[in-house]
What does this fold into?
Amino acid sequence: MVRRYIAESKIKNAEEQAIKIVCEAEKQSETKKKEVVLEAKEEIHRLRTELDRETRDRRNEIQRAERRLLQREESLDKKVESLEQRDEAITKKQKEIQKSLEEVQGLYNKQLEELERLSGLSSEDAKQLLLNNIEKQIRHEAAMLIKDIETKAKEEAERKAKEIIASSIQKCSADHVAETTVSVVPLPNDEMKGRIIGREGRNIRTLETLTGIDLIIDDTPEAVILSGFDPIRREVARVALEKLIVDGRIHPARIEEMVEKAKKEVDNYIKEQGEQATFDTGVHGLHPEIIRLLGRLRFRTSYGQNVLKHSVEVAHLAAAMAAELGADVKLAKRAGLLHDIGKAVDHEVEGPHVQIGADLVKKYKESTEIIHAVEAHHGDIEATTVEAVLVQAADAISAARPGARRETLESYIKRLEKIEEIANSFDGVEKSFAIQAGREVRIMVKPEDVSDSEIVYIARDIVKKIEDELEYPGQIKVNVIRETRAIEYAK
It folds into this structure.
């Protein structure tokens, strides 16, 4: 009973305490609810105030924009009205201008008819006359301008070219060589002639057969003449004959032995000459066969000029000019030395020496620049490198300097006649004279047919025709002269 009573008492206390806690919780909840409601009302009031302010600001902004739009519309209306007034004014002015143009055109037609009546020329004839006069005037002015430009360019180019060429020539001194197709072998006495001829001419026949050279034994005292077009064979014959004369034993077997020795000696000499040429020019790395071909040029002449000495000279000249112009000196020197290499075998191989030389340097693995310079040194193809142009110039300088070459009288006269013939073929030319060994032509024109300005065109046309139709070393100066003379006689 007591336990029950205690338990009921505890339950009752617990229920009272629970009711008390619930009541306190309800009171706190009510308080919290009132606070939240109050905060919500304050937040709503604040947001409403901000919304009213933003709405008011937006309304004010819209009102300002409406006022600006109204002002712009008014301005646009005024501009449209102004443009309409301007269009009306322009239209009116155009009508007035059109009317004025019609009046001017009418006056122009009347004046044109009056001018045609007074001049006796139609408008087309007058226009053609005017165009002809303008054309003559323009041609005259163009000729004067061309003359002025050419004069200035020639003065500057000539001065610079003279400096470069003179400087290059000063650095290269070469002998003037004139070789022929015969060699003379001196004899110790005239009795040696009979020993050379031999019994029934067997010795001289053996020597001529082995060397391919003709021996001329005539009344020339103490001398035998060797005649032949192949200079290497002629040199072999000369060396062999000199050895036989020194040895004194002259018979067919000894002749055969000496000819073989002479061939070896000449081959060695050819090799030495080729090596000496490369040493003199400072060109290295050449194929041994190229060096041997260079040595063969020692016995090759062109218009009497030794081709090896000419090649060495061209190498020096091209290198000197390349140094002056800032081009490749080594390339220019190498191309200059090899430019005539084809002449070493051109009597053995068909074709021009230019193509033969190009094929040779290509065969022995020279560079494309060297091959191009060899191909272009006579203008067979257009030179596309500075070094190729320099080789052309050096070749012309070496070949054209006084005493370097000799020409046959017949070809010389034919060239002079051809130059005069070309000059005389132009209208207005009265006389022409080829002078300075064909390096200058002076042309007299008829003053009544050719004006001062037209002589410029005549000179240029003659130069072009000479370049197209003639082959010549160096350059040819074309000098066109026009003069007016007044001659009277006192009687």
